[in-house]
Amino acid sequence: MLYDLSLHMGYSYDAPASGARHIMRLMPLSLANRQRLIAGSITISPSPDEQSHFVDFFHHPATSFLLRAPHETLDIRMQARVQVESQPIAADFSPLLADLPEEISGMWSLAPDSPHHFLGDSPRLTEAREIADYARSCATPDLTAMQIAHALCARINKDFTYDPEATTVDTTPIEAFKLKRGVCQDFTHVMILALRSLGIPAGYVSGFLRTIPPPGKERLEGADAMHAWVRIWCGETIGWIELDPTNNIPAGMDHIVVAYGRDYSDVVPVIGVLKSYGGHRAVQAVDVIPLK
């Protein structure tokens, strides 16, 4: 499947901002046997005084830029063409939960995709007893790691209500868990914590999702936003799988990966510091257009 992507992120400040330094992770990845970035560009307005590119620990390309002069708005636009490959349906050769620690201990690699990085606490995710208890209700001894992951995905999708007004980007997983409401970031963080509490390595995926309008309705341009889902390590034989608890589906040809991390803090699309006072307003619009 071939997609054209466009993303607009805009910020307006109550008082002019200056000395702004930001880091962006917006461009889709090229992943062997998964997806290929054919072409892409990012434009920034006002034009940066300094700009540099680097690759972070998780092998994601990132851009750092500096705006010295006062500015009342910041406008970032990304365009890309991406080809996504269909994925074969994998048989479940994952170990039982009791046998998973032995497989993890046998993994000596500390490469970015090593399961060891995705087991303990991370900047936004720390142990929560309520979520651990919730996870144990889905983890009977006769289930494999993959079966538990699918069961948790379905349970969260059933128990939680998608509500973009209920939470913010700074809402903690335990707050979202108590509300049983939120957005894809909340669903993803809760599922990651639940899996880690069971000893199953899990991480955060940032990207785009093609959405299909209801029957009889036209697709709204710019109505989509960036999406998030979960990456789970299911043993040495299978490796990593990806599940989308917001929609209770495996990540497939409609999911386009931008970045992998331990939690949202590793994959924030735009993050930075600046000098200003007062508040600011942000807008985000995404178009995911299938070409064939």
From TrEMBL:
Domain Transglutaminase-like: 176-247
Superkingdom of the organism of origin: Bacteria
Classification via Gene3D superfamilies: 3.10.620.30
Protein name: Transglutaminase-like putative cysteine protease
The species this protein was found in: Rhizobium laguerreae
